[in-house]
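Aggregate trends can hide what the representation actually does to any particular protein. For completeness, the protein is quoted in full, as a sequence line and a line of structure tokens.
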Amino acid sequence: MLLSFAIFFIALFSLSFPFSGPNAPLRWVRRCVETLDPDPKRGRRRKILLGLNFYGLRFTADGGGHLTGRDFLELLGRLQPSARLRWDPEAREHFLEAKLPHGEGGKQTVFYPSLKSVEERLALARELGAGISIWEIGQGLDYFYDLL
């Protein structure tokens, strides 16, 4: 499919936006790379950079938006105690569904990267022989860098 390129950046984030859903389901990430270069033996995958998001997505009944690490931590501090991060085994991402305290809004659905989801994307990049790029430095949680 691809004839010649120096580097090919794939923005593998915000798949669901503006609709509620995961940021970059792992199966979709794999399919993007394998569609671009179906033959890993040719060695061109090393020129493909998988764009990993270090930000999250937040959805309410009024719409959605991006969520930086600072905003995510602030939101966690305001959620009701019953709020719990859950693992989406299909998308391989963490998310939470929770309500803010009375008067601060309704139900929130948040997809946010975690060490586990970032590590799974790094492992997939290694498996496929591709590189990575980060979107965007400074938007995530500091401990994401421990994996690099």
